[in-house]
Design a protein that fits this description.
The protein has about 230 residues and is an alpha+beta fold. It is built from 5 helices and 9 strands. It holds the Pfam family tRNA_U5-meth_tr. It comes from Vibrio ishigakensis. One of its GO terms (cellular component) is cytosol.
Length: about 230
């Protein structure tokens, strides 16, 4: 079973349903019309994690149906960033024929940025040794030679090996300001950064409005005191 592709029609249906639900929630109140800000239909998530399934000589990503818990194969993940989708097949093919890298590999985590930085975490049910480190360095170099800008992390029980940094840098331009975030592996990050940028834009507008209101009130107060 493969993951279904996200189409423009299904995205619009989901967006319309969510809009209707929100309108129903506030139907008892006098509210202004909802202003809807659609996200991208695909490639909007900047991080993703997949279990890894071993089947004979084959190796592939899987996810689980949230309702049935049935596993399904995932060769591409349309909601994830383009760079994650580009890396998914390259990584699995590079690992597949290297027993040290593929043995007991059970999960792969991707963290990407708008500027193209990527952090890949390989999770294992085994201890990682010097041979693994040497092959992981080769893997990292091979992928970077393909034009990527990535770092690699190996994880096992009570072990963490970082090649060569454990974070990516995300920069969001909002009006005349640049917000810089150091996003560390295995910690919370906002996976929909374009939406985050819109939230920051809205916050900036509100704060500017409050600042103007405060200054206007101050001027009125000072003027009243001077009379």
């Amino acid at each position: 079973m493969s993951i279904p592709q996200t189409s423009s029609d299904s995205y619009q249906v989901q967006l319309d349903e969510k809009t209707e639900r929100l309108q129903a929630m506030f139907s008892d109140y006098e509210m202004p019309s909802l202003e809807v800000f659609p996200s991208q239909e695909q490639h909007y998530r900047m991080r993703a994690e997949f279990r890894v399934w071993h089947e004979g000589d084959d190796l592939y990503y899987i996810m689980f149906n949230q309702e049935t818990r049935e596993k399904y194969r995932v060769d591409q993940f349309p909601v994830a960033s383009r760079i994650i989708n580009d890396l998914m097949p390259l990584l699995i093919e590079a690992v597949k024929d290297k027993p040290v890298l593929r043995h007991k590999l059970f999960q792969v985590d991707f963290l990407s940025t708008l500027s193209g930085e990527v952090l890949i975490s390989l999770l294992y049910h085994k201890k990682l040794d010097d041979e693994w480190i040497a092959l992981a360095k080769e893997l990292k170099q091979t992928l970077n030679d393909e034009g990527f800008n990535l770092n690699l992390i190996g994880r096992a029980r009570k072990m963490k090996i970082v090649l060569d940094q454990e974070y990516v840098i995300e920069k969001l331009n909002v009006f005349d300001r640049t917000y810089t975030y150091q996003q560390i592996e295995n910690s919370f990050t906002h996976q929909m950064v374009r939406l985050q940028r819109r939230c920051l834009s809205g916050r900036s507008i509100v704060l500017e409005s409050l600042r103007v209101t405060f200054l206007s009130s101050t001027v009125v107060t000072v003027t009243s005191l001077l009379r």
